[in-house]
Design a protein that fits this description.
The complex is a heterodimer. By secondary structure, chain A is α/β, with parallel strands linked by helices. Chain A has 18 helices and twelve strands. In chain B, about 40% of the residues lie in helices and about 15% in strands. In chain B, helix 1 packs across helix 2 and helix 3 packs antiparallel against helix 4. The longest helix of chain B is centred in the middle third of the chain and has 23 residues. At the A-B interface, helix 1, strand 2, strand 3, strand 4 and helix 2 of A face helix 5, strand 4, helix 6, helix 7 and helix 8 of B.
């Protein structure tokens, strides 16, 4: 291991930002907090992108590792212990100053702190804790902080950090426990899910508590809500007068308690207010889209996660046990997964509607919503002037915003296709699935093959640069078909090419 | 013969509201009046031959009356929409707002949802256009620290968004002195701790005062971070350009290379 003494901040920043670049969740969303007039910083629930790096991804937070020294040897990771790379570590003070000075100049929305595992998970988490504590209490930083919870660290530390951070995340890394075992021998599934559950339960009890708090009852009268899941409160409230209120803990005199884990002295009464997220690596292992999305769905359902991020695998170590990414990372696949993720979170879809075990991967050519709609033509066309919000959301070309706009606009007028266009509905896709005032825009037969072909020739623009997974040869084949007069017969046989899925790895 | 009366007003919310007040009370009839705001984009070579031009002098009392009745008789939301539309760079916004208010006083608060009406739809789109730029700038504004610790920033927005972006920074940086300079309009907003921020017109400001100091240590650190955070395997300039249009970049630290200070 190469450790350089007396490294400049610039050099450390280079090494540790480079090492952090594969973390995906650079979002600053989920919490609305006004400035407090004394410190520095506020936060907007919508999040703010401050710039976009050369790969087109948003930079919102100072995304950085505390250290890239690591005792773990995860096969996919550039910082694995068996790699011979330059190692560096920040001190909490250096990181605080960097964050504050970047923040003052409006470079960033806050800090996203992750870390390699130095000495032990607990040691690393203590360093992270100290950084966050300094930032909040000594530098009076009131902006956004996203922080990783390191699997295997003590619940007490996670609890303590949760009062300083806005969002916490534990990386799931892979959808199945087997893959994790294979590629990250030092991690195990249980250690990942445990902190996730802890944060979830703590947030729930805190929200419940705040529900009472909101009733304007004085704090000391509020009943105690104990969180005994991990026996944390008993550890946490080591002080002698552990009486009635969680918020009173500030006043408790910590005699003989672990002084390091003191509750923030500044008033922060929400535990991980922006919730937690996680991320999975896509394309390093053989899981299907169906497996991946099923895991995501159960994370949303059972762990109350705010976001699951997907990261197209890049074989940085040229490890021969892992798939090569010489032709570029599987970006289209990542894109389809995000599309499906949105369908689950905002459009009321269940993964079982989009994929099945027999049909486990997303369509390369059609987005998941179009793909679903074409397989469920019996539900269309939908009358725009009457359909309820949930039904409107299911129409390809109508999103959350446009569905809301439709609902608002039809209160004052009967909507026609011209109005829809003016309101931003993507008619190119929606036209096959809707009626205005009982009429379709022009006569369209509700036929699976026909609509598929039309949607494909509409040639939806994919985000730049991810279309290289598609073989254009097959697309041109379809173009030929649509010129034939009697396409119906051919279509029956050829259309089978459409559901071409990702080739197995 | 029916001449169209064209009320020419100052390009500001107050100017437009004054013109609306005058046009409304003139008694010529809505169909016979038009409101035109003076702006740089208009070169005034296209004056209408048979129309009568009436120059409107901005009158704050009249403007206040209009804004009060918009808030009371239509809604606060409609008022906000009108204000943002008035800050946009759209030529003809004065008349558009006039038509919007005619309809608004007729329909009341529900006008904001009447998106299938052309005028409402255009006001809605103007709002979105202004809001997008404001939201972009909340992220893209770059401050540089001068020797006296004052933070300065220069922007070149299409719309007159200074009054919409400044509150955000005043809330965020309550203990900082900062200046945001709008290079397209020669106005700037000023914030001093403990006082409310103001917008001032400074025709003779030395524009380079607001520039990055070339050796700002943190500017260089930021550039280093910016370069290292990109994943080389995913480099995608088109996506980057789509998300971060080129017009913002000349004012952003990470895109200003070396000593080259871009010309204003």
């Amino acid at each position: 291991m190469i450790i350089q003494e007396g490294m400049s901040i610039q050099r450390k920043l280079e090494i540790l930002s480079d090492a952090a670049k594969f973390d995906v969740a650079c979002t600053s969303s989920g919490v609305d907090r006004k400035g407090n007039q004394t410190g520095i910083g506020n936060s907007l629930a919508c999040g703010i992108c401050h710039t976009f790096s050369a790969d087109g991804r948003c930079i919102s937070l100072l995304k950085i590792l505390f250290t890239n020294e690591c005792i773990f040897d995860c096969k996919y990771c550039i910082n694995r212990s068996s790699n011979d790379v330059v190692r560096a570590s920040f001190t909490p003070k250096e990181l605080c100053e960097l964050t504050i000075e970047f923040y003052r100049r409006n470079y960033i929305e806050g800090l996203f702190l992750s870390s390699g595992i130095k000495v032990s998970p607990n040691h690393t988490m203590e360093l992270i804790f100290e950084t966050l504590r300094m930032l909040r209490e000594e530098y009076h930083f009131n902006g956004y902080i996203h922080c990783k919870a390191i699997p295997g660290s003590d619940p007490v530390l996670i609890e303590a950090i949760g009062w300083y951070a806005d969002r916490m995340s534990v990386n799931l890394e892979f959808p199945t426990a087997e893959s994790l075992k294979q590629l990250a021998p030092h991690k195990n599934r249980k250690n990942i899910l445990k902190p996730m559950r802890q944060i979830q339960l703590r947030r729930e009890s805190n929200n419940e508590y705040l529900g009472i708090h909101d009733n304007k009852q004085p704090h000391y009268n509020a009943p105690v809500l104990r969180d005994d899941v991990f026996g944390m409160d008993s550890i946490y409230n080591k002080g002698p007068s552990n009486d009635n209120s969680l918020l009173k803990i500030d006043d408790v005199n910590y005699k003989g308690g672990i002084s390091l884990y003191k509750r923030p002295s500044i008033k922060r009464d929400k535990f991980v207010p922006a919730g937690q997220s996680t991320q999975m690596i896509i394309g390093a292992t053989e899981e299907s889209d169906y497996q991946i999305m099923s895991v995501s769905q159960s994370l949303y359902d059972n762990f109350n996660l705010k976001r699951v991020f997907y990261s197209a695998f890049v074989n940085v170590n040229d490890d021969s046990n892992l798939p090569s990414t010489q032709d570029g990372p599987p970006l289209l696949r990542e894109h389809r997964l995000y599309q499906a993720d949105w369908l689950i979170r905002f459009y009321g879809f269940r993964i079982s509607e989009l994929l099945t075990e027999k049909n486990p991967n997303f369509n390369v050519f059609l987005d998941p919503k179009c793909d679903w709609a074409i397989r469920h033509l019996e539900m269309f066309p939908v009358e725009v002037n009457k359909a309820d919000y949930r039904t409107l959301l299911r129409v390809p070309g109508i999103g959350v915003n446009s569905a809301r706009r439709i609902i608002a606009a039809r209160k004052t007028a009967v909507l026609g296709f011209k109005d829809l266009k003016a309101m931003g509905i993507v008619l190119k896709r929606a036209v096959y699935f809707i009626t205005c005032n009982g009429r379709m825009m022009y006569p369209i037969k509700l036929n699976e093959d026909f609509i598929t072909r039309e949607l494909l020739t509409a040639n939806d623009r994919l985000p730049y640069g991810i279309d290289r997974d598609i073989t254009y040869k097959q697309l041109s084949l379809f173009d030929d078909i649509s010129f034939k007069s009697d396409y119906k017969q051919d279509a029956k046989t050829d259309i089978k090419l459409v559901p071409q899925r990702y080739s197995p790895i | 013969m029916d001449n169209t009366k064209i009320f020419v007003c100052e390009n500001s919310i107050d100017g437009i509201f004054t013109a609306i007040y005058q046009a409304w009370s003139s008694g010529y009839g809505h169909a016979n009046v038009k409101i035109e705001e003076q702006c740089d984009k208009n070169n005034y070579s296209n004056m209408e031959l048979f129309s009568e031009y009436i120059i409107v002098k901005t009158d704050f009392d009249k403007a206040l009356k209009v804004s009060k009745s918009v808030k009371n008789k239509i809604s606060q939301e409609a008022f906000d929409m009108v204000c943002r539309a008035a800050l946009s760079d759209y030529q003809g916004k004065g008349d558009l707002i006039y038509r919007f208010l005619i309809l608004g006083f007729h329909m009341g608060g529900k006008i904001v949802n009447h998106l299938s009406h052309e005028v409402v739809n255009r006001i809605f789109k103007l709002n979105r256009y202004v809001n997008y730029e404001v939201h972009h700038l909340l992220g893209f504004i770059r401050f540089s620290e001068q020797d006296n610790r004052i933070l300065t920033s220069i922007i070149h927005p299409k719309n007159n968004v200074l009054s919409l972006v400044t509150p955000h920074f005043a809330d965020r940086l309550p203990n900082e002195k900062f200046v945001i300079f709008d290079g397209n309009r020669n106005i700037c907003s000023l914030h001093v701790p403990g006082k409310s921020w103001i917008i001032a017109e400074i025709p003779g400001i030395e524009k380079n005062d607001c520039r990055d100091i070339v050796d700002d240590e943190y500017g260089n650190l930021w550039k280093a971070f910016f370069d290292n955070i990109a994943i080389k395997e995913r480099v995608n300039p088109k996506l980057q350009r789509n998300n971060l249009p080129l017009r913002f970049r000349k004012d952003m630290t990470e895109f200003i290379t070396g000593n080259a200070i871009s010309t204003l």
